[in-house]
Amino acid sequence: MTRQLRIEPDGVAIDAVAHDTILQAARRGGVVLAYECGWGSCGACKVTLVEGQVELMYPGAPAVNPRDARRNRILACQSRAISDVTIARGPGEWSAPTPRCVEQQAILRGIADLAPEIRQFSFETAEPIDFRPGQYAILHLGDGLRRCYSMCNLPGTNILQFIAKRYEGGRGSNTLAALALDAGITIEAPFGACTLRRQPGRKVFVAGGTGVAPILAMLREAADAGLDFGAPVDVIYGARAPADLAAGDMLEAAIARVAQARYLPVVEAAPSDWPHASGFVTDAIRTTIPDPAAAEFYVAGPPVMVNAVKSLLRGADVPITQVHYDAFG
Ligand code: FES
């Protein structure tokens, strides 16, 4: 069934199909509401429900607080219209346009082992899905199971590649890991605002675990476009042990093609012959980035890591507008 979604102050009216979230419906109608995570953790997509009823798909979402409920604030990424609905976005609640979000069937064409329990999955779609490097897709894995993964390759083909780790007991990661070659799923993309700003200046990329995927995509973009930022580019890649630096080779290959870029791997459990840094990515930032406020940061990894980096940067007076991040559990 189709519902009408009205967005104020734009005065735009959009037909929302039954399974659309408010965020998706708005995007299909050409209104790009702000968002970051797409699953309820960041709060970037909060809008005010002015009229109508919505289904809250994730009532206990981390980004929602009691004050939001009192003020009729909802998460556009986790709400569906169940009647005609009017929402109001605040003046800052929109993002720069990105390619239009689409949904396509995709066939699993390749699986490559990168590290223990970490694989690269290559899906083929009938038509290329346009996206900006750093953005992510929602994979519909069956039985209502949806998981977000960032593309690690570049747009322009009908292949989307993802790097995923299988977690013991993790429903989504185990379902993905159990897919056989030529299995079909639905992919919805693109989402996310953690994309490369091409202006000159010092850049610091910080990846934790499989959060390396969007960082790898942005570095590949910089390398392929021959971008020269006119300043050092530091790429910090953290994992538990050296064997978990699953995409290290691919990352180094991209870094080698970016002017003034250097690779800084860091592991928590370093063997005695490990030639690089040990500890956490936050330690690496402290020891290698003397003036963080003069840099722009791109951060992707598990929420605990992303939050630790954000907190470190806040303490170092780095303006939030210089910090772009994606947190995935
Ligand atoms: Fe909706 Fe993050 S909570 S985009």
From TrEMBL:
<dbReference type="InterPro" id="IPR050415">
    <property type="entry name" value="MRET"/>
</dbReference>
<dbReference type="InterPro" id="IPR008333">
    <property type="entry name" value="Cbr1-like_FAD-bd_dom"/>
</dbReference>
<dbReference type="InterPro" id="IPR039261">
    <property type="entry name" value="FNR_nucleotide-bd"/>
</dbReference>
<dbReference type="InterPro" id="IPR017927">
    <property type="entry name" value="FAD-bd_FR_type"/>
</dbReference>
<dbReference type="InterPro" id="IPR006058">
    <property type="entry name" value="2Fe2S_fd_BS"/>
</dbReference>
<dbReference type="InterPro" id="IPR017938">
    <property type="entry name" value="Riboflavin_synthase-like_b-brl"/>
</dbReference>
<dbReference type="GO" id="GO:0016491">
    <property type="term" value="F:oxidoreductase activity"/>
</dbReference>
<protein>
    <submittedName>
        <fullName>Putative ferredoxin NAD(+) reductase</fullName>
    </submittedName>
</protein>
<dbReference type="InterPro" id="IPR012675">
    <property type="entry name" value="Beta-grasp_dom_sf"/>
</dbReference>
<dbReference type="Pfam" id="PF00111">
    <property type="entry name" value="Fer2"/>
</dbReference>
<dbReference type="Pfam" id="PF00175">
    <property type="entry name" value="NAD_binding_1"/>
</dbReference>
<dbReference type="InterPro" id="IPR001433">
    <property type="entry name" value="OxRdtase_FAD/NAD-bd"/>
</dbReference>
<dbReference type="Pfam" id="PF00970">
    <property type="entry name" value="FAD_binding_6"/>
</dbReference>
<dbReference type="InterPro" id="IPR001041">
    <property type="entry name" value="2Fe-2S_ferredoxin-type"/>
</dbReference>
<dbReference type="GO" id="GO:0051537">
    <property type="term" value="F:2 iron, 2 sulfur cluster binding"/>
</dbReference>
<feature type="domain" description="FAD-binding FR-type">
    <location>
        <begin position="101"/>
        <end position="197"/>
    </location>
</feature>
<dbReference type="InterPro" id="IPR036010">
    <property type="entry name" value="2Fe-2S_ferredoxin-like_sf"/>
</dbReference>
<feature type="domain" description="2Fe-2S ferredoxin-type">
    <location>
        <begin position="3"/>
        <end position="93"/>
    </location>
</feature>
